[in-house]
Prior knowledge:
By secondary structure, the protein is of the alpha/beta class. It has 3 domains: 12-136, Ubiquitin Conjugating Enzyme, CATH 3.10.110; 178-311, Rossmann fold (3-Layer(aba) Sandwich); 314-469, Lactate dehydrogenase/glycoside hydrolase, family 4, C-terminal (L-2-Hydroxyisocaproate Dehydrogenase, Chain A, domain 2). The chain is 38% helix and 21% strand. It has helices at 12-25, 105-108, 117-130, 139-157, 186-197, 219-224, 257-269, 272-278, 291-302, 315-328, 332-335, 361-383, 389-404, 450-468; strands at residues 30-37, 43-57, 59-69, 79-82, 88-90, 134-136, 178-182, 203-207, 229-232, 243-246, 283-286, 309-311, 338-341, 349-352, 409-416, 428-436, 439-443. The strands form 5 sheets. The protein has a 6-stranded parallel sheet with strand order 9-8-7-10-11-12, sandwiched between helices. Strand 1 and strand 2 form a beta hairpin. The longest helix is centred in the last third of the chain and has 23 residues, at 361-383. It is globular. The N and C termini lie far apart (61 Å). Residues 1-138 form the UEV domain. One of its GO terms (molecular function) is L-lactate dehydrogenase (NAD+) activity.
Amino acid sequence: xxxxxxxxxxxxxxxxxxxxxxxxxxxxxxxxxxxxxxxxxxxxxxxxxxxxxxxxxxxxxxxxxxxxxxxxxxxxxxxxxxxxxxxxxxxxxxxxxxxxxxxxxxxxxxxxxxxxxxxxxxxxxxxxxxxxxxxxxxxxxxxxxxxxxxxxxxxxxxxxxxxxxxxxxxxxxxxxxxxxxxxxxxxxxxxxxxxxxxxxxxxxxxxxxxxxxxxxxxxxxxxxxxxxxxxxxxxxxxxxxxxxxxxxxxxxxxxxxxxxxxxxxxxxxxxxxxxxxxxxxxxxxxxxxxxxxxxxxxxxxxxxxxxxxxxxxxxxxxxxxxxxxxxxxxxxxxxxxxxxxxxxxxxxxxxxxxxxxxxxxxxxxxxxxxxxxxxxxxxxxxxxxxxxxxxxxxxxxxxxxxxxxxxxxxxxxxxxxxxxxxxxxxxxxxxxxxxxxxxxxxxxxxxxxxxxxxxxxxxxxxxxxxxxxxxx
Length: 472
């Protein structure tokens, strides 16, 4: 029944022993060697262990699953998928995504020898008994389901034609949702802790670029061993990250504002090309100052498409703005369409993405006047709220969550504003954007407001003039 795994499997005896233990408990499982296609397009021949697990959810069900055993097993968790038949639909939930990929705390906390395949399957059964992952399709839905199954097969089984395979392997196959934070200052550490607390990633890498052990402020993270957090000074540790967060700021002796920014640009020249090389499909999320300029610099230095280079922008201000409208000023109807846009600092401006249809022009003016009064009150309160490292860290985690988990949620982030509001220069400003795994999926159109457009154009002009003076 069990053949010897190929030489790429470093711990063959341990792997075979585990698979045999599963077969004793679940004799229907079968073992084969197939090609797995990773999300970055790389492929690898891996052991595929497939079978059904018994689940009681009112009635008894046999749920088909497949476990892809990585060549670093048992020190890395398997990749787990549902394997629905043509008459089964996937019930997307806490532990299963639309492609049937299974996510469990057991996988995230995997640690040999405590973690085993038997233990994993037991937790899988327990979670499925809380929330059944599959449901029966009607005959009319079965045809559409076959298209989904075909798509899933391409992900989980790869191409069968040997000539079409890209045998590049890939680093960190056991870690699919990795986020790297560059910079171990207060903001960098705040981002790491917020991302870890929000359970956004399977692994968080903190790149400490400071000189000397004590300067980076990472000692306490090492002492208390935050789970799934790796601290490194080696850029290669960031390889295959889904999101790379930039928090570094130059602490040089620059005299003028332009000199300070140029120091940051020079710092980024040694960072962006390297992290872009190691994570060619990542979204760059810039939190360094000034965020609009440094996002532009990151875009130029990385050569990434504009959709995958964004700044934290006014996300924090927008979330606070909406919260104040809803909870303090009791203007729930307004809050869902309210955004802070433009550039960070004093030049940010409240804006709206839709307006209720009213009968005539008089009512339009009355509605806008009422809305502006409420917005002005909220903006006055915002002025008294500083942006501490921990609050920006929470904002970064919020954005990373929407990106990594493909939530398609709207955020006000720094994005290339050329073409919006008659802006013709390459500048980054905060605008409401739909975020997903590819970064900015689309920019949400703002309601036409001459004052907002004037403010955005003014910001674009001053930022563009500043960028023209930088040496890239």
